[in-house]
Amino acid sequence: MRIASSWIVPVAIIATWQILSSTGHLSARILPAPSAVVSAAVRLARSGELLVHLQASAERAGLGFAIGGSVGLVLGIASGTSKLFENLTDSSIQMIRNIPHLALLPLIILWLGIDESAKVALVALGVFFPIYINTFYGIRNADPDLIEMARVYGLNGFSLFYQVVFPGALPSIMVGVRYSLGIAWLTLIVAETIAATSGIGYLAMNAREFMQTDVVVLAILMYALLGKLSDTISRIVERKLLVWHPVYQTP
Amino acid sequence: MRIEISQLSKRYDTRAVISNLDLNIQSGEFVAVVGASGSGKSTLLRLLVGLEVPTGGSISVDGKYIRGLNANSRMMFQDARLLPWKTVIGNVALGLSRAEIDRGTEVLNRVGLLDRHRDWPSVLSGGQRQRVALARALARNPRLLLLDEPLASLDALTRIEMQALIEKLWIASKFTAVLVTHDCGEAVALADRVLLLENATIAMETKVPLPRPRDRTAREFAQLEGQVLRHILANRQLVPASKTTTTNRVSRADNGNAQEAGKPA
Ligand SMILES: Nc1ncnc2c1ncn2[C@@H]1O[C@H](COP(=O)(O)OP(=O)(O)OP(=O)(O)O)[C@@H](O)[C@H]1O
Ligand SMILES: [Mg+2]
Known about the structure:
The complex is a heterodimer.
Chain A: H1 2-6, H2 8-22, H3 34-47, H4 49-81, H5 83-97, H6 105-112, H7 116-140, H8 144-152, H9 157-194, H10 200-209, H11 213-241
Chain B: E1 3-12, E2 15-25, E3 30-35, H1 41-49, E4 56-61, E5 64-65, E6 73-76, H2 88-92, H3 101-110, H4 126-139, E7 144-148, H5 156-173, E8 176-180, H6 184-190, E9 193-198, E10 201-207, H7 219-235, H8 241-254, E11 258-259
Parallel strand pairs in B: 3-8, 3-9, 6-7, 7-8
Antiparallel strand pairs in B: 1-2, 1-4, 4-5, 9-10, 10-11
The structure holds adenosine-5'-triphosphate and magnesium ion (MG).
The site of magnesium ion has 3 residues of chain B, from helix 1.
């Protein structure tokens, strides 16, 4: 029932949009009819073009997320568990964090050209900070009472980290993951729009040159779809990892 | 496990929380420690389990001096301190090797929670959580069990049930037990000896010679409970001085159970 009712508004909007387009109140040059977008999707899917671009974008996002995420996780754990490491790195990381990573785009293009590595690097950079910071705080805020208890019960070193500190930091890490997924897509949209020869962003910019508004709208919808998809996956992963969490205990 | 504490001191900065405390606990004895809030009861337990390092004096176990945590001592805290990301059995088996897992199920059965072994701690009631914590403490067969007000947050009925359970398990396993509590009834119900911690040392001790299991409604029980309570209050000057002296005289004349122990501060 709740799921059904959440669809009422989007369906109503699309229906109104279609009616406005069909009756000629909405020029196709400004906004194509939903039916035109659908037929563009079918056309591009048939020719295989859509899949190629989707795949290019998904690969960049996935690779950038994997690299930035794992570096952020490892450094976050290192700073969270070692005071020495924190002193060495944390203030530099906090300083770099204040530079919007998209501002580095021209520099990265200069360094890496406009091929894949530039876009992957930019995504990785954007993903790194939220994961690093949330991992660091999650570990730093580990419950001292639980750690004390675990020490009385014979845990120390790695077993203490693995059984007590890290699981306690997981909810915070997952917040970082969800947040950084949003950043990954945002970064990719910017990077692909400015410098790419494939990907959804390229598809949109290319279509703009030929005034294919239906393809432009389709590209925007594809980004929305990919973002929603990755968010859903991260929710499923979170649910699996945090089954024990009181939030997930309500039947 | 026989414990000998000699001239034990613990200070934080300039404040002495424990000073020159002498105490011997026999193997298998059940000792209760009462005292005002902030009198250092938790600190004494933390010293015994090895979470704190004494600033003076020594603790020896079965004739050997100890420093730091040791595998034969286990502690139960006021809050259950279960790991929320481990199931009930996972918590009980914390730190046990694969070969010892059966021991975990066995103690869980003894505290009556075997059927909940796969549940998450967050769905348990407060009393059930403390029973899991008790099972966890006993899973390693400790020779010394330290209990820091483990029942303070439970309702009266659950508390009495838990006391009976602790007593039963103590009789079965013959470990040495030190229980910190602010409930004089609990101290008299469980302990062989009740110590009053006051002014950083043991100000008074009362032996409890009642047969087990103890009848809380018996006259002797009420008398001993009142006696312990009066000692706590007397030192806090909450009872008129005349009444205190009478109490002390009566208790001495009674059966000599109450004695002034340790040195006056
Ligand atoms: N780590 C610490 N640093 C400084 N002071 C401490 C520390 N731990 C305990 N104290 C002090 O030692 C004193 C005794 O504390 P303790 O926790 O042993 O009291 P308690 O008898 O257990 O009290 P309660 O009944 O309220 O639990 C208190 O004044 C407390 O402030
Ligand atoms: Mg205390």
